[in-house]
Amino acid sequence: MANMFGLIVSGRLVQTDFTPVSETSLVTTILDVDSINHAVVFLTGTTPLPVGTVAVVYWSWPDPNAPPNWQPLGHISNAKPSAIFKISNLKKLHELSSENKFMSAFGQQQICNNAQIGISIEPEANAQLLPNSEAQQVNSYVTFAQKMLENLVNFVASFSVTQDQMTPTPGVSYIPLNTLHTWYQNFERRLQQNPNFWKN
């Protein structure tokens, strides 16, 4: 299992020295992590992952005062044999959180002064539970768009007046509020049908 995975960090040789921690988990250490912005994890091709599984990739920043705190980065699979992970935006965690549900994947280990990449072979369904999974990102975009649109409609509606209350103001255009409501309903319907429709 140790030769199944490789790691590339900019300006360094390929690492394949993953150490097994359990039957389904491996760890490798990366030295001098201050200058690292991205890491590439890939299947070497020597052995495919078991059918129905993915390799979930975790990152642990060095913290001399605490054991590793594993942060999920994403996953690779036989269908997606490599991935680039941005690690520069991850924050160092100085205390272990009791909410860290990923800690058990690699167990409580000795304090480490170097960054670590952990790989855990897990059922495919677990990939959807990752914080940055594509399904969750789409749901996040949909939720953001809906909240933004609701805010816009509510904001504009707060300025609505009836035709009797309107005073003519030269140079100012007015849009009927029902036009905005119709647009909102159409946009929301299209967003539900295809969250990426706006990319076309």
Automatic annotation (TrEMBL):
- Where is the signal peptide, in residue numbers? none
Q: Could you tell me one molecular function GO term of this UniProt entry?
A: Hsp70 protein binding
Name the source's superkingdom: Eukaryota
Q: What residues does the Hikeshi-like C-terminal domain cover? A: 140-200
Could you mention a single GO BP entry for this protein? protein import into nucleus
Q: Which residues cross the membrane?
A: none
Which segments constitute the Hikeshi-like N-terminal domain?
A: 8-129
One GO CC term on file: cytosol
UniProt family annotation: Belongs to the OPI10 family.
Name recorded for this polypeptide: Hikeshi-like domain-containing protein
Q: What is the lineage of its organism?
A: Eukaryota, Metazoa, Ecdysozoa, Arthropoda, Hexapoda
